[in-house]
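Sequence, please.
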C-alpha cells in the first residue's frame, strides 16, 4: 500500500470528538496506529510482531475516555514503523535511500542517527526494517499525503481551542518498553512526564500529572529519559497560549511485552487515566493565556 491508497473508507487518521468541546485540552496519539500497509510487510525483513515493537500499543484506547470529559482525541491509524509524525517533516536518513536527498532534509539529527527519522530505518529494538527500502518518491508521498494532513488537523484542533477558550493544552500520549537500551542503567518508571524541561507548558500541568499518577501508586519521573519529541517541542508555546506535555506509559503495566496482548490490568489503567485526566482538565488555568506585552 502506498500513501495514495489511504482514503475515506480507509483513513490514515481520525479525530474523535465530543458533540461540544467543553475543555481547552486536545489529546493526541501519534504512534498507536496498527494498520500495516501490505507493501510494508512485503518490503520488510521483519515479522508483523517485530514491526509492532515500535507501536505505542493501544494508547488510543487507554485515552479513549477523554472524549467523555469533553476533549477531542486525534489518533493515527498508520504505523510508526512506516511514518513517524513525531519528527520534523524531512528528518530523512541517508542510510535508507539510494537517491540523493533534497537540500532541506535534516540528515544529521540525533533521531536520524539512531535510525528513527520521519521514515524509520529501524524499529525500537534496533532491528533494520527493510529488505527493499522505499524510494525517495514514496517517502515524500508519505510526508505530503499523510504527515502534512495529520499536522494540519492537529493545528486546526489547537487553533479552534484557543479561539474558544483563550488557550490550548496538548497532551501527547505515548508508551514505552519496560526497559531501555544497554546504555540505560535501570528499568524504566511507570510514567514519564515530558515538558521539554519546563519550556513547553505551564508548570502546574506537569505538577498535576506527576501528583495524580504518584498518588495512585505509579512511579513517575519528569523528562528522563524522555523530555518530549518534535510534537511537544513544536507546539508547546506557553507565551502564545499553546501548552504541550508528553505522557509516556510503561507498556508492562498493561500489555504482555512478548505476546503484545492486553493484560487483565488494562481496564484498571484505563480507569486510572480517565480519573487523572478528569482532574487535569479541571486545574486552575490562571496564567495559561498568551502573555500580554504592554505597548511602549
Amino acid at each position: 500500500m502506498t500513501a495514495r491508497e489511504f482514503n475515506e473508507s480507509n483513513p490514515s487518521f481520525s479525530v474523535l470528538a465530543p458533540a461540544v468541546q467543553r475543555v481547552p485540552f486536545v489529546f493526541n496519539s501519534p504512534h498507536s496506529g496498527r494498520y500495516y500497509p501490505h507493501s510494508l510487510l512485503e518490503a520488510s525483513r521483519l515479522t508483523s510482531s517485530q514491526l509492532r515493537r515500535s507501536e505505542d500499543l493501544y494508547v488510543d484506547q487507554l485515552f479513549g475516555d477523554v472524549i467523555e470529559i469533553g476533549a477531542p482525541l486525534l489518533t493515527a491509524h498508520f504505523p510508526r514503523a512506516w511514518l513517524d509524525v513525531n519528527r520534523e517533516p524531512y528528518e530523512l536518513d541517508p542510510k535508507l535511500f539510494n537517491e540523493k536527498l533534497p537540500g532541506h532534509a535534516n540528515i544529521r539529527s540525533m533521531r536520524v542517527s539512531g535510525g528513527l527519522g520521519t521514515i524509520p530505518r529501524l524499529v525500537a529494538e534496533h532491528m533494520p526494517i527493510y529488505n527493499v527500502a522505499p524510494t525517495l518518491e514514496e517517502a515524500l508521498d508519505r510526508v505530503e499525503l499523510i504527515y502534512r494532513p495529520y499536522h494540519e488537523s492537529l493545528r486546526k484542533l489547537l487553533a479552534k481551542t484557543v479561539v474558544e477558550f483563550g488557550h490550548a493544552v496538548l497532551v501527547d500520549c505515548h508508551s514505552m518498553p519496560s526497559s531501555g537500551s544497554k546504555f540505560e542503567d535501570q528499568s524504566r518508571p511507570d510514567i514519564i512526564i515530558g515538558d521539554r524541561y519546563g519550556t513547553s507548558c505551564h508548570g502546574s500541568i506537569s505538577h498535576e500529572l506527576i501528583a495524580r499518577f504518584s498518588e495512585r501508586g505509579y512511579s513517575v519521573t519528569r523528562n528522563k529519559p524522555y523530555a518530549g519529541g518534535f510534537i511537544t517541542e513544536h507546539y508547546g508555546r506557553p507565551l502564545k497560549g499553546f501548552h504541550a506535555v508528553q505522557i509516556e506509559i510503561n507498556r508492562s503495566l498493561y500489555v504482555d511485552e512478548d505476546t503484545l496482548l492486553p493484560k487483565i490490568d488494562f481496564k484498571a489503567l484505563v480507569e486510572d487515566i480517565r480519573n487523572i485526566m478528569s482532574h487535569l482538565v479541571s486545574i486552575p488555568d490562571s496564567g495559561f493565556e498568551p502573555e500580554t506585552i504592554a505597548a511602549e
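The CA atoms of residues 181 and 278 lie 34 Å apart.
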